[in-house]
Specification:
By secondary structure, the chain is of the alpha+beta class. It has helices spanning 19-25, 39-45, 57-62, 65-77, 82-108, 160-186, 190-211, 216-233, 264-267, 282-294, and strands at 2-6, 9-13, 35-37, 52-56, 111-113, 119-124, 129-130, 134-136, 139-142, 154-156, 242-245, 254-257. Strands 3, 4, 6, 7 and 8 form a five-stranded mixed β-sheet that branches. It comes from Nocardiopsis sinuspersici.
Length: 300
């Protein structure tokens, strides 16, 4: 914290509440954060004559653009099968926002609050693909004793349960319109689509914990509480993911199994089931993960 003088008085300058997240993610090998921008940044980049069109998430879900972009992306890049195409659409639009929420809660104890009017999805018309999502003028929920509690971009909540609820409700309000539109167009089940989101929320707390050599079960417990709050907010799914300890004596010997298949194998049958797929037998999964532990170069 620094100080500045203004008419003879000294005022504390509270650091950007997202700086802690940027710092915490710096040592991670995998940290897909969205671009953290201001509205002024977006206006500067949003050239009407340029190749990139910036969609607010809420507008993309409501103005009829989502089906058009989904079909264009699927035609240009695949996969041909509608189910992996639907989960791939979620991956390219929601991966970074999910990571921001999960990783921030786990690593900093702060909850970035997504919004349908503050999540932007840049569509590259020349390449027919989405670029890195942007979270614009992001507000952050914090606890009363957080050093950033006085920052104008923060919302102070009473306790950790309230923090998780705030994160979950904002996430649900942002994603539900997109998932509704994707469900209606792709005919993929909402339980499948929300299942992908819930699985990813869990994995994006577990991954940092594993990489940093921390307690995987503790990270999983927090992820489960966040998942519970998202379900309470309105998300639907058939089955939740589960922790999979395959080498408990090793600090990175715990992985997880998704509750919902992403159906990538339908788009690429030669690839087969993913290592985290619920359709893969645990014996094969344990063998693959043990080989990766012995030789990380084998990991995909």
């Amino acid at each position: 914290m620094t100080a500045s003088c203004d008419e003879g008085q000294v005022h504390a300058v509270v650091a950007d509440p997202l700086d802690a997240l940027r710092g915490a993610c710096a040592p991670l090998k995998f940290a897909p954060l969205p671009d953290l921008l201001s509205h002024r940044d977006v206006e500067a980049q949003a050239d009407p004559a340029g190749p990139v069109h910036w969609y607010q998430a809420g507008v993309l879900a409501s103005d009829g653009s989502l089906p058009v972009l989904f079909d264009k992306m699927r035609t240009e890049h695949g996969p041909g099968h509608r189910l992996p195409a639907a989960t791939n659409f979620l991956r390219v639009t929601l991966r970074e926002p999910i990571f921001m929420v999960s990783a921030s809660l786990y690593l900093t104890g702060r909850a970035p609050l997504l919004g349908p009017d503050t999540l932007y999805l840049p569509w590259d018309t020349a390449r027919a693909r989405f670029g890195t999502p942007a979270s614009v003028d992001t507000r952050v929920a914090v606890l009363p004793d957080d050093p950033a509690a006085d920052h104008p971009a923060t919302v102070v909540v009473q306790d950790e349960d309230a923090l998780l609820r705030a994160a979950a409700q904002a996430l649900f309000a942002t994603f539900e319109p997109l998932i509704d539109a994707l469900h209606a167009h792709s005919r993929s089940g909402k339980r499948t689509l929300w299942g992908w989101v819930l699985d990813t929320l869990h994995f994006y707390m577990l991954n940092p914990a594993r990489y940093l050599g921390r307690d995987a079960e503790q990270a999983w417990d927090l992820a489960t509480r966040l998942g519970d709050a998202v379900v309470e907010a309105g998300a639907v799914t058939r089955r939740r993911p589960r922790l999979f300890p395959f080498a408990p004596e090793h600090p990175r010997g715990t992985w997880a199994v998704r509750g919902t298949c992403c159906f990538d194998y339908k788009g690429d049958p030669e690839h087969g089931y993913c290592t985290t797929c619920p359709l893969k037998c645990d014996g094969e999964r344990r063998q693959d993960l043990s080989e990766w532990l012995r030789d990380p170069a084998l990991a995909p």
